[in-house]
């Protein structure tokens, strides 16, 4: 992924527009398709957690979409640091943790409506994330890079199959790097 070099933005909207344009210009329009899912689901979700912040593009999409609380987790927030202050002036409460997504116990985590997983793209890591975080999600889990990283999609498929009474596949988007959206049965539309 290409990184945004500019750090001086007037506000979060200007940052978001710039970083989305930068990503689409470098990787193609469908690279940021998961942003639209995050925005769309904001109408039925209030709380958002993200595993793998990088520079904060999807976090900005969530903040601007109207989620009331954002919980952002990454093992290193260095790429995100120049942009953190842009989140200060927005409505949602934002909590940022510099910590591995697999070093939590489920009871340490508040429940959220929406979870984005875009962290370490390894199947074993994703299995651990799902075992910890899925039980703390009320409605949706969105995974990025699942078309280009087929091993991630296999983990998701196995998870949904093993938990078919609780989770179902909503969409496996197979353009560019792709994404996968699953929902908790009975809670999401």
Regions with pLDDT < 50 over 5+ consecutive residues?
A: none
Strand content: 15-25%
Q: CATH superfamily, called what?
A: Vaccinia Virus protein VP39
- Helix/sheet category: alpha/beta
What share of residues is helical?
Answer: 25-40%
Number of helices in the DSSP assignment: 5
Q: Could you say which overall geometry the principal axes of the C-alpha atoms support?
A: globular
Query: Average pLDDT value?
Result: 95
Label the CATH architecture. Answer: 3-Layer(aba) Sandwich
Instruction: Name the strands of the widest sheet in spatial order.
Output: 3-2-1-4-5-7-6
Q: Tell me the major beta sheet.
A: 7 strands, mixed
End-to-end Cα distance: 32 Å
| Computed Rg | 15 Å
Number of domains: 1
Describe the model:
The chain has 189 residues and is α/β, with parallel strands linked by helices. It has one domain (12-184): Rossmann fold. The chain has helices spanning 12-27, 33-41, 57-65, 123-133, 150-162, and strands at 47-51, 69-74, 93-98, 112-117, 137-144, 167-173, 179-184. The chain has a seven-stranded mixed β-sheet, with helices on both faces. Helix 2 packs parallel to helix 3 (57-65). The protein is globular, with a radius of gyration of 15 Å. The mean pLDDT is 95.
């Amino acid at each position: 992924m290409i990184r945004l070099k500019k750090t001086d933005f007037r506000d979060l909207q200007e940052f978001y527009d710039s970083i989305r344009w930068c990503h689409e210009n470098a990787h193609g329009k469908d690279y940021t398709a998961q942003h639209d899912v995050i925005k769309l689901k904001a109408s039925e979700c209030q709380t958002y957690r993200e595993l793998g912040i990088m520079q904060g593009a999807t976090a900005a999409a969530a903040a601007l979409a109207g989620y009331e609380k954002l919980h952002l987790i990454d093992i290193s927030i260095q790429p995100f640091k120049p942009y953190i202050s842009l989140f200060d002036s927005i409505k949602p409460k934002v909590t940022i943790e510099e910590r591995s997504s697999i070093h939590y116990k489920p009871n340490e985590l508040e429940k959220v409506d929406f979870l984005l997983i875009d962290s370490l793209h390894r199947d074993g890591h994703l299995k651990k994330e799902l075992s910890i975080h899925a039980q703390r999600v009320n409605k949706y889990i969105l995974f990025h890079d699942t078309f280009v990283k087929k091993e991630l999609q296999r983990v998701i498929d196995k998870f949904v199959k093993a938990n078919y009474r609780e989770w179902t596949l909503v969409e496996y988007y197979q353009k560019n790097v792709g994404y996968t959206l699953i929902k908790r049965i009975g809670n999401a539309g």
